[in-house]
Design brief:
Layout (H helix, E strand, L loop, with lengths): L2 E6 L4 H12 L2 E9 L6 H12 L3 E6 L22 H4 L11 H16 L3 E3 L15 H14 L1 H4 L6 E3 L7 H10 L24 H13 L15
Helix pairs in contact: 1-7, 7-8
Length: about 230
């Protein structure tokens, strides 16, 4: 019997690989994307194409996190560019969006209950990432415990929710390698925090640099990078 799973899909490398993994493991994927007031629409368009490619039912939720501010992704502050990999690995950058994964997971939890699904799949990672606190294993474990206390289906014993994080301890290179083995076309994806109006990656933000690092470690060209990213020491 096919199991339903809500898969958070942003249109980047990690979420796309996660969707491919869910599909390969026999889940019927229900992709969930958020238009949350981020700087650009390009990633939404990528998510649409990817959901269609993987034949996943796709829902886009509109919320406006700009009303809170606090992030370069939802405000007027400049996105950091040209940082070294050492700088990226230290501290929490201004591209952190306050409580974003908690908000996203809450929507996913609600949809999972309606779908009578026991699984949510999320592409968080604690190795090649920018220090976000809501990507850590202890956060996911705590949220899963809370989620199983939070719904009617859970209280009545009709749902036991599991949050799957198949990428959480993989490097970016390992993530890409896993996706390539599953036939993922990374030319359909976008990871950039600050793309051009036509959707070209900037090549210099933290997300672009980490993505470039992953492809470089595999000795492969990134099919989506229209501007070569600099991989610093």
């Amino acid at each position: 019997m096919t199991r339903k799973a809500v898969v958070l899909l942003s249109g980047g490398v990690d979420s796309t690989t996660t969707l491919a993994i869910a599909k390969s493991e026999g889940f019927e994927p229900y992709a969930l994307t958020f238009r949350y007031g981020q700087r650009h629409e390009a990633e939404i368009e990528c998510a649409k194409r990817l959901a269609a490619h993987f034949q996943a039912r796709h829902t886009i939720i509109d919320i406006d996190l700009r009303v809170f501010g606090g992030s370069a992704l939802t405000g007027d502050r400049d996105v950091p560019k040209g940082r070294s990999l050492d700088e990226i690995s230290r501290g929490i950058p201004i591209t952190y969006v306050p409580a974003r994964n908690t908000i996203f997971l809450s929507f996913a939890l609600a949809w999972a209950e309606v779908l009578e699904a026991n699984d949510i799949v999320l592409g968080v990672n604690v190795l090649d990432y920018s220090g976000y606190p809501d990507c850590r294993p202890e956060y996911i474990a705590a949220y899963e415990r809370m989620a199983n206390l939070a719904t009617k289906a859970g209280v009545e014993g009709r749902q036991r929710l599991t949050i799957h994080t198949p990428l959480i301890r993989l490097t970016k290179a390992q993530i890409i390698q896993r996706g390539l083995a599953l036939g993922v076309d990374y030319g359909l994806t976008l990871s950039c925090y600050d793309p051009s109006p036509r959707g070209d990656a900037c090549g210099e933000c933290d997300a672009c640099l980490l993505r470039a690092k992953g492809f470089a470690e595999l000795g492969k060209a990134d099919p989506a990078q229209r501007k070569e990213a600099r991989v610093g020491p």
